[in-house]
Specification:
single chain, alpha+beta, Beta-Lactamase, Arc Repressor Mutant, subunit A, 2 domains, 8-stranded antiparallel beta sheet, globular
Length: 254
């Protein structure tokens, strides 16, 4: 299963609930996306994970990045803006999705009230209207949770950038905008979602070991193995060990 499919599993299959102010929240976030596109000349994409739809607001940058003129606003039946993805360098697109997967898993481990503090930032290459690659600053935020606390509305921004890749963070970084803390997705900070023992157990599960095999190999009780397995599923927000192994491999944890 590729990263897009894994993200679909992680995002679109969350349990959602209707809130009495959902329409107000959605319209408010649409206005935020629109204002970003106007003020920053950016392309702003608001993705609704509940309905699997997106609103794309094309700022003036779109005149440089696309060979055909784009409307000011486009509504699509997907959370994936394929018309934009087609312009992104294939290597950067893979890194972008992998960073988003790590970001999503990190947010799910945080208290709801802290999630809006965090954002993704990275430099990617996108083709311009002449077919040449330009450096583009990509940012992503989750701007609204659903009443059950699951991720609901995501905002992606694309701006032309004078910067190239940041050597310390070649594949992007996660920033806490409240504290200024920078998280490098490749330096192990996200991997620490699981304890060393949980990683050890997950590696054994991935190799096909049963709980009783793991119990004997690590000299711990089956009840302790079961507790660790439940903690792994809870921390990675997945339903079974197969999904846990797939997510952990994509994130580089195992």
């Amino acid at each position: 299963m590729n990263i897009i499919q894994t993200l679909n599993e992680s995002l679109l299959k969350q349990p959602f609930a209707e809130g009495k102010n959902d329409n107000i929240a959605l319209e408010s976030c649409r206005q935020i996306a629109y204002m970003y596109s106007k003020i920053e000349n950016s392309i702003a994409v608001l993705s609704d994970l509940k309905s699997n739809h997106s609103d794309i607001f094309y700022g003036r940058i779109s005149n440089k990045l696309f060979q055909i003129e784009k409307p000011l606003h486009e509504h699509i039946s997907s959370i994936w803006e394929d018309g934009i993805f087609n312009n992104i360098h294939p290597d950067d697109l893979i890194n972008k999705h992998l960073l988003e997967l790590k970001f999503t898993q990190l947010l799910k481990s945080l208290p709801i009230e802290k999630r809006s503090d965090y954002q993704i930032t990275s430099i990617i290459r996108m083709k311009d209207n002449t077919g040449q690659y330009k450096h583009v600053h990509h940012r992503m935020f989750y701007v609204q949770n659903c009443p059950l606390g699951n991720l609901w509305l995501a905002l992606c921004l694309y701006n032309l950038s004078h910067e190239k890749f940041v050597p310390e963070f070649p594949n992007g970084m996660i920033i806490d905008s409240f504290t200024g803390e920078v998280i490098n997705p490749g330096n192990g900070q996200i991997d620490s979602i699981l304890s060393k023992r949980e990683v050890e157990i997950l590696k054994l599960i991935e190799r096909g070991n049963r709980s009783e095999d793991i119990s004997q190999a690590l000299c711990i009780s089956k009840n302790t193995v079961s507790r660790h397995r439940q903690n792994i599923l809870s921390k990675l927000r997945v339903k079974n060990s197969l999904e846990a192994c797939r997510i952990a491999k994509l994130m580089g944890i195992i």
